[in-house]
Amino acid sequence: MGLKTRMRLIPLLLCWMSGTAFAAGLSPLVVSPDLVRGSRDKAATPAAAQAADKPAAQQGAVTEKPAAATAAPSSSSSSAVEVRPVRPAGDEGAAVGVPVQPRPSAGASGQVVRPEQTRAPVAMPAAQPSAATPAPGGTEIRALRISGTRAVEMVADGDAELQRGETVLSADKLTYREPTDEALADGNVRLREGQSQVTGPAAQLVVGEQVGEFQSPAYRITRERPSLIEGEPPRVVSGGGQADVMYFEGENHYRLENATWSTCTPDDPDWYIKARDLQLDYDREIGTARSGTVVFKDVPLLWTPWAEFPLVGQRQSGLLAPTFGTSNKTGLDLSVPYYWNIAPNYDATIAPRYMSRRGLQLAIEGRYLGETYKGEARVEWLPRDNVSGEERSLGSWQHQQWLTPQLYASFDVNGVSDDEYFEDLSTRISVASKVNLVREGRLMYVGGDWWSASALVQSYQTLNADPDVTYTTPYRRLPQLMLNANRPDLIGGLAATFQSEYVKFAHPDEGMPEGTRVTVYPSLSLPIQRAGYYITPKIGVHQTQYDLDRGLPGGRDSITRTVPIYSVDAGMTFERDINLFGSDYVQTLEPRLYYLNVPYRRQDDIPIFDTSRYDFGFAQIFSENLYTGGDRIADANQITAAVTTRLIDPTTGGERLRALIGQRYYFEDQRVTINQLGGSVVEEPRTGRRADILAGFSGHFNRENSLDSLIQYNPRDNWTERFNVVYRYQPDFAKALNLSYRYARDILRDVDVSGQWPLGGRWYGVSRLTHSLKDDRLTEAIAGLEYDGGCWVFRVAAHRFATNSEDTTQAFFIQLELNDLASIGTSPVSLIKRSVPGYGTINEPVSNRVFGFD
Prior knowledge:
Component of the lipopolysaccharide transport and assembly complex. Interacts with LptE and LptA. The chain is mainly beta.
């Protein structure tokens, strides 16, 4: 079918006519102030010049397919044209390979040249080529009837075909002039090279130089787009359409008049670019449209007098497609970003953003990448917030660099003008819930395989957006110096580790303690590993020195703490073959014991600089300390017992099921706590002999179904402290259902349901609902619809989430994505990927589809 040319212009979108462009991702159209470009001289090509002197029956639009792999003309005088006659279609009486006799013609020497009566090709000696038009090499011509003069002109009639390398030109009738390397094709003309193809009624082409023209072509040009992910294969990108005439202007260069271009199927594309003059440059991978219109479903979306667009999705400078949405905090939210491709390793995005409730904001983001460094910076500025009446701003800069092969440096600096900045101006829960913005610089030296050193300077900006909750600013590290070493290969099988730290803590609140802490912790272990079991005894001494500028009231200003630490870690592994539900497995049984002894040292007059209690779990019950940081070393005389069993597929080695249970037993009461001298009671010391029981289960019953759960049970008080369970059903791409329940005593009880599923007719639904049973409120909700149009995708989504105990933020997303060209609107994809496990982007190539979490 031909393309529909009927256009119903939308007045609202035409207001962008002097400055709008379209693109996909980092591939914007470029809008030039040069509104008028003169057309090129069609007679500029040798083929066109010769066509002017031909009879009308021999004139045709010159044609060629993109010929990146076409053999170049050879200057060798020994080259020859091979003529291959073929059997007439339907001629049952003719012998195999014997063509119908063509009319004899006189050769240059008066000799009559006749096609061979066998399947062997006729080798026609070529005339000596001139310097300007060398004779081509490796050219083959096939047809039902072939006539002509040696080294001058050959006429192939009936299923004619000319082939040179990967370039194949076929037509009802084909005339080839060897001295000029010119081919004239008439009737059902097709030019093919690889996966690219041009068809039409007539063509004229200089084969080697790849210049000429094609009348009324329908074309499809295919190229490979390198993957941005290491290890991924390149992706094939095709674009094509129709035109009145197509000019070939050298390898990979084409110009078309009154043409269309689209990545949709060429018969009846849902969207296309329609331009009076269209240039396709596959060296730069850029298309240029003059007087161009983007048409979607026969409706013109936008028009521009001059614009560039990506042919294979690469980045280039220009206006990105506008993004728009709405939320209860910003109102109507519209942004028209400009992308600046400064260099192959430098770029920037300048994004004016209009919010109907807040005002006009300007955002600038820059990125850079070198052989030894990379980074990005972002600035946002709102001169006046219409709601608060204040100026609001954001600044962020991250940089990473290898100064030498052993020395690494980085810094991360972030800041906003006020505590409510993210809550008011962001539509993402991951950003709106930010509390501490880090500001740090880091140096790290790797001295070899066994030691390293680092230096850190760090502070934070703390945001208190919720008036009912006050967050304490973390301590600054001004600086922190660390030296660590690990030697597992000492004499007698011994292994040694060494950890050390110097850190100066400071705080903006003058009422908070400040000072320095020096820590040294050497240890020695003897790992004994044998088939089926292991045992590792270990001994170390933890030495800490505090010099406090401001100590706790009634506490010491200089504190020394020396704590010896003893431990023994042992385990065994048993295996057996087992058959369950008709399948063979290897089952393991892995018991483990861990004994730890740490004597008590008084620590309540040591300030809490960077210490908190670990979350109770399987990793923590096998650790040396209950606490993070270095301000508390918990006393211990305890043993932990656990057992794990697994079902392993013997053919793949994959784990199909795992179950484990563990518990810690105490021989003494707890004495060290996180409480501080003169402060409130934060932690009650433990007096029982048994810790909570931990049990976990993880199983992949088959490819579609999986279950993960964890329970923490308190045997002293006979209640459950925590319980989590997650079930996932994922039978295929873009089909995922997730159900989870989370419980923490006196803290939360949440039910979470999420999923993505085809609804039929190319429609897909996606949603997530998180309901707090404790507070009886919906804390987060996402609902969306997607439509896969083949070469385009439409998405609409709504998002509602609680920013604090009383306030919520609501956002609405709408997006039209034209594959490999433009994305109009605000994309909800990143939000959905974070929120819905197993979500699949429906217009990603199959090779890029990843099941499960992103």
